[in-house]
UniProtKB/TrEMBL annotation:
<feature type="signal peptide">
    <location>
        <begin position="1"/>
        <end position="24"/>
    </location>
</feature>
<keyword id="KW-0732">Signal</keyword>
<dbReference type="InterPro" id="IPR051200">
    <property type="entry name" value="Host-pathogen_enzymatic-act"/>
</dbReference>
<feature type="region of interest" description="Disordered">
    <location>
        <begin position="24"/>
        <end position="98"/>
    </location>
</feature>
<dbReference type="InterPro" id="IPR015943">
    <property type="entry name" value="WD40/YVTN_repeat-like_dom_sf"/>
</dbReference>
<dbReference type="InterPro" id="IPR011045">
    <property type="entry name" value="N2O_reductase_N"/>
</dbReference>
<feature type="compositionally biased region" description="Polar residues">
    <location>
        <begin position="87"/>
        <end position="97"/>
    </location>
</feature>
<protein>
    <submittedName>
        <fullName>YncE family protein</fullName>
    </submittedName>
</protein>
<feature type="compositionally biased region" description="Acidic residues">
    <location>
        <begin position="49"/>
        <end position="64"/>
    </location>
</feature>
Length: 421
């Protein structure tokens, strides 16, 4: 263990064009010095990716968001069906979703028939889908009135920029991190160039029943990923430009403490003890282990570049980590924190997910426009399929045995993963 501390992109597809922006996340592979990297979003032609994205960062949506009223058609008490063992199947594309106009940074299924896509500042919305049909359930603007939810000190209307989501176990609420709050403080970028002038941001909570935002939670600067402890008493949020982890009491919505980490923390995985947490500090090339009871944090691994996403096997015996710059998937024994397996991925692995039975892993390869399926035990690659352009998010839907891929260029690709090999 090398360090110890303690503590109390993107682009929009619109009429076939991509919006050039430097505030989107870790989207440049040309930089070799991660400490000095400016990470622009996908660019077009000869556009300069380092230009400030004043035209796109705070732009109003090109189309008026439509709030749908048919979430009641998706029963909340659905139970996942019996599906074939995931490592015994292959997957085939069944659907492409590109309406309404979306720029999905992530897609997350709730295991109860819904999936939420987060469209950053390029569309200023989240979109919710019925995973059984692929139908749009709701398009919700990322605007909120903090005072109406008991939080003072903000304008009457605040606009966010949705990044990632974490669902409650019952599938009734989704916590959505907001990259920045529009017109509050200096512009936010992934290289954190504006320092302390960037204002702290927030997490908005989405309610399936209310079909809207029902909580405003203050966190740090440029929050990226979040995860709930298994008992759902705490929400954990990585603050990209504060280099730390916010620990939120979910009952009060108030931050309990910050845990200092290192440069640009992102992925989070929480052990069943509700105390032990793994966090990827992406630009520091470090995997951290955090004790929520003491606030102590240690680096446990630093031998590969750009750890981005971390997930646990269903039994929490194995931790899986994608290393984006190393094109690597690594498995760790959570008892010893030792490496027990590695696999080469496609170019620039980003998000991953596991099948409901834990026998398969799904990894999106950002610069290869593909998604890979691995045997979770052997880390042997089972299949690789083409996706839309710039796949950045992926989720497994236990209700249908389908894989949903978020393509940052402006679409969702859906695969059936129940096909016998």
């Amino acid at each position: 263990m090398r360090k110890t501390t303690s503590g109390a992109v993107g682009a929009a597809a619109l009429l076939g064009l991509l919006i050039v922006s430097s505030c989107a996340e870790e989207d440049s592979r040309s930089e070799t010095d991660s400490d000095a990297a400016t990470i622009p979003g996908p660019s077009v032609g000869n556009a300069d990716p380092t230009d400030e994205a004043s035209d796109s960062e705070d732009a109003e949506p090109e189309t008026d968001p439509v709030e749908r009223t048919d979430t009641a058609d998706v029963p909340s008490d659905l139970e996942p069906p019996d599906l074939p063992e995931a490592r015994s199947t292959t997957f085939e594309q069944t659907q492409t979703i590109d309406e309404p106009v979306i720029t999905p940074k992530s897609i997350v299924a709730n295991g109860r028939g819904l999936a939420i896509a987060n469209n950053m500042m390029y569309q200023n919305s989240v979109t919710v889908y019925d995973t059984r049909t692929g139908d749009l359930v709701q398009e919700l603007p990322d605007t909120i009135n903090p005072a109406s939810l008991g939080v003072d000190g903000y304008p009457e209307t605040v606009q966010g920029a949705p990044v990632e989501a974490a669902w409650t176990e019952d599938g009734q609420h989704a916590y959505v991190s907001q990259y920045r709050l529009a017109d509050i403080g200096a512009p936010a970028y992934d290289d954190c160039r504006n320092g302390d002038a960037v204002a702290p941001s927030a997490v908005f909570r989405y309610s399936v029943e209310d079909q809207g935002w029902d909580q405003f939670i203050e966190v740090g600067r440029v929050p990226k990923y979040q995860a709930l402890t298994p008992d759902e008493s705490r929400l954990l949020v990585t603050n990209w430009c504060d280099f730390d982890l916010s620990v939120i009491d979910t009952e009060s919505g108030v931050e309990e403490m910050r845990v200092p980490l290192s440069s640009q923390p992102r992925g989070i995985a929480v052990m069943p003890d509700n105390r032990t947490v793994y966090v990827a500090a992406m630009y520091a090339n470090e995997l951290w282990k955090v004790d929520l009871d003491t606030g102590e944090a240690n680096v446990i691994y630093s031998d590969a570049e750009f750890p981005r996403h971390v997930i646990l096997s269903p039994d929490a015996d194995v931790l899986y980590v994608t290393f984006s710059r190393s094109d690597l998937l690594v498995a760790f024994d959570t008892e010893s924190d030792e490496v027990i397996g590695t696999a080469t991925t496609g170019r620039e692995p980003r998000t991953m997910d596991t099948s409901a039975d834990g026998t398969a892993l799904y990894v999106v390869n950002y610069y290869e426009d593909s998604v890979s399926k691995f045997d979770a035990g052997s880390l042997e690659e089972i299949d690789r399929r083409s996706t839309g352009h710039l796949p950045i998010g992926v989720t497994y839907d236990a209700m249908t045995g389908s894989i949903w891929v978020a393509n940052y260029s402006g679409s969702l690709t859906v695969f059936d993963d129940t096909i016998t090999r």
